[in-house]
Amino acid sequence: MAQDFTGGAIDLGALAQQRESQREAGTGFQPFVTVDETTIEAQAFQRSLEVPVVLLIGTARSADSESLKAAFERLAAGQRAFMVAYVDADATPQVAQMLGVRVLPTVVALAAGRPVTDFEGNQPADQLEQWVGALVSQLGPQLQGLRDDDASPDPQPAEDPRLDRATAALNAGDFDAATAVYDEILAEDPANAEIKQAKATVAVLKRVEAQAEPADEVERQLQLADRQFVAGDPDAAFDGLLALVKSEPRAKERLLELLALLEPADPRVIAARTRLASSLF
């Protein structure tokens, strides 16, 4: 594979900067906030005039609630397409009462200052992603969008110099050496989402390099989707996999893996997740 990874379809050397450049200032937009009776109007209902807001009412006493809260924090991190507002029902029971909450956790989606849909209890991570993707794609275009003064003024941080080694290894076709660099960084910073993303992308590249004759038609489509994604045509990869997800679990697994390699707010990701939700339900 003779692709230049600093200027080709996948710029792995810049992954450590992509999401950091979208970090939100403390006084501007924050993708996940905790609200109470004094802040819910401005930070949830008013914000929903601009982007969809997921209002999560939960309690630390519930394992399902804490799991759902953590899942929404992960989904919201580093993006500006939607916001999550968390209500601690123990600290502010009056807010839960005002919203008519009967079960914890409860999730209410807000758009244009009003509730549009809700559900009770915990949900699997992939279904949460599909649900949020549908909110963003269907409701987001109808809203005002974020104001310019909500953008972060923070400059981009300096790139880890070790990423140059990873890029050089990739351009030499040495995927194992690149992975070793990412493992080195993750050993120091296990929560680094950008490096996890880069490592996962390298795994796809290595898989493409090692592709053998497919055992069946499904495997052929999985291999084709990998090649299309690496070549810079994720839409084609998603289309092929979406045609199989209803009948083939391997296709859904591969689709979710490839979707995770792009930014959650990427329009191609949102469109694919919306189509996935429609095909499964």
Automatic annotation (TrEMBL):
InterPro entries referenced in this protein's UniProt entry, alphabetically: Thioredoxin-like_sf (IPR036249), Thioredoxin_domain (IPR013766), TPR-like_helical_dom_sf (IPR011990)
Sequence ranges assigned to domain Thioredoxin in this UniProt record: 68-132
Family matches, as Pfam families: Thioredoxin, TPR_14, TPR_20
Source taxon at top rank: Bacteria
Record protein name field: Thioredoxin
Species assigned in the record: Corynebacterium jeddahense
